[in-house]
């Protein structure tokens, strides 16, 4: 049969859309009693019903559009945020993603029951086609919920990455005019930018003459990391501070040399302590034991 | 001669800075497993970092294939960095220290070659680039010094 038949042939698409539209109130009432709605909209039941209605409305649009297997279907847009907020609330309540997905899938029961009752007298193949269509529609709604949760998780990770970047690069004042940055982990472009900004700010704020970059915690020094270090050293120098790199481990030292990176213009010391000793020395300070004996070698230079 | 891969090759996507961290972590873990000393580990991880970044920055993204290999009693890693980017017209120029088509130090490719025992580039303009390196747990007597 052709789609252009004047008598508008029966289609699962139309049948499901009609049911959702006509039984909107009934469906919403039943959904409002499910944990997914009930436990999120706790103030009044009307609120839950209203939320359930808007989900039903969105499903009507998707069902009528025929794109029931498409999670990007525009009909879902109006409930994406809401279903995401509900799923997130359930997830915060301690439910696993699987359990939340199960709760979203449970919305299917009310629709399928009403649909079966509605089509009781219809040809059996119509019943099957309509139920399948409705099931697919609600499975896709479940995917929409999961995708929204996943995206929120991703956003959280991005936010935390941002936070990590800020907290992981403290500038420490070791002495008047001496600051140090212990670098830890991966020094990618974004992080080294943060390090540089923090360090330059600290040089101004502390009136630092010496800035120490300690790379003990950096696992890999490749050419990009080296370039970032060189840029940081050069900028610190422009701010009037001498920059010392410390904590280059033997394996990294060999690697840097084989890479062909020239650090000969940069002051380096093997440990942070050596660099501090050097900085004190430059400032005309000396570390002295209180019992008057001389301090053993290694405190400076 | 080098025998074939002793285990199924691992493939990693190289599409973002995060993938570069993953490449470094995986290469380090595999190198440790294969009994690489700390210095050899650091060298192969650094070489992998350089080449993976080239794949990302110059090749527009691609993938790394990692396989464990064995020669005699020595274990090693063979890493291939594959992209379908613009390729290179002049490999010798690209390997020259200080030459860069971007704004890096121009040491990555040549430096990576010095860090490993075997280094091969397969590239043509417009046909993408595949760089394959092999590093051994111990420096072999036959290792080429450049």
Shape of chain A: elongated
Q: Report how far the terminal alpha carbons of chain A are from each other.
A: 93 Å
Strand order of the largest sheet of chain B: 1-2-3-5-4
Largest sheet of chain B: 5 strands, antiparallel
Number of helices of chain B: 4
| Oligomeric status | heterodimer
**Quick check: average pLDDT of chain B?**
87
The CATH superfamily of the largest domain in chain A appears as Histidine kinase N-terminal domain
Question: Beta-strand percentage of chain B?
Answer: 25-35%
Low-confidence stretches of chain A: 1-5
CATH architecture classification of the largest domain in chain A: Orthogonal Bundle
The percent of residues in helical segments of chain B reads: 25-40%
Overall structural class of chain A, as computed from helix and strand content, comes to alpha/beta
SSE order of chain A: HHHHHHHHEEHEHEHEH
Mean pLDDT of chain A, rounded to whole units? Answer: 86
What's the domain count of chain A? 2
Instruction: Indicate the radius of gyration of chain B in whole angstroms.
Output: 14 Å
